[in-house]
Design goal:
Length: 380
Amino acid sequence: MRFTVNRDVFSEAVSFAVKLLPQRPTQPLLSGALIEAENGELTVSTFDYEVSSRTAIKADISEAGRALVSGKLLSEIAQRLPHADVEVTLVESRVEVRCGSASFSLPAMPVEEYPQIPNITAVSGAVPADAFSEAIAQVSLAASRDDVTPVITGVQLEINSNSLTLTATDRYRVATRSIDWENQAEQESLSALVPAKIVTEVGKTFGNDGIVNIAIIKDEERELIAFTGGNKTVTSLLIKGNYPPVGRLFPTDVDNYAVISTSELVEAVGRVSLVLEREAALRFTFTDGNVTLEAAGTESAKAVESVDVHLMGEGMTVSLKPQYLLDALRSTHSEFARIAFTRTDNPAKPGPVLITSQRSKEDADDTSYRYLLQPNLLLR
């Protein structure tokens, strides 16, 4: 194997391929990046039996072939090479990398023992890359980081004929966003529970690719999902188990709500929460015309601030953890946020708080993105 390739293109390809490699691979072989050179195309891939990444770039190939080398090391080298074309050669059991005056010799791992990377040819449908990336950023932050309950460490994708809905929860909050879906399969409905880490990386990687093609494969051999944008593909095994029916937690109609400037509330929460101990909550008192934020911290430290609001319905007092509220406000991606108050059977007990986006104080809210703070998060 021998090829010459543009330094920046090569560095980007290797960086993408190794990004999802496990920190502690179960086998040394699975820390490798597979390089395949053939017919003017260079393919860089990684695979650990659960997740794979694959990208193809143009290269000047003098001799076809393939080699397996340490992915992390190759990525670090590629990022630090001088700005000149890169020449890579397989010489017996070593991979030689030359660029300008720099040269490296890396041991090659036995490529014949490397597992076969999933080959995806089917496509279930497609989504606009920018909307998909935004939706992932809005939703994935609500996924649980506690491995004790694996099903809620993922993002649930639910597909019908023309829309894709992403949902995540950590028991204390639920975030959901719907975007347009171009169906290219016979199934009218599909679902996939994907590890949040994978979805998050896909959102960062494919945001500028125009269209992202998605394939959901469930058969006797495997259950996996594939994301393809441009010349890049990521596959992941699906999380097994039944996702909790969190959709039914969202109220169908709420007429008691406050509309507030998103940036003003974000800034106020940041200031007032300075005196709070970790995990403590802020007290929000909504009245006609304003909301008062109150915090009592250690050593008698206290903070109070008021922000103008447009209130519909009755006033309300709730206590919310500031970081969870900030996550919601920043994810609305709008000038105004609507904070809606739901009721429970107990009049003295506030129900979940529903946060949606709004372009102005008078407009209806945009329900394509919804963020629900559950009752057990509210400190009363």
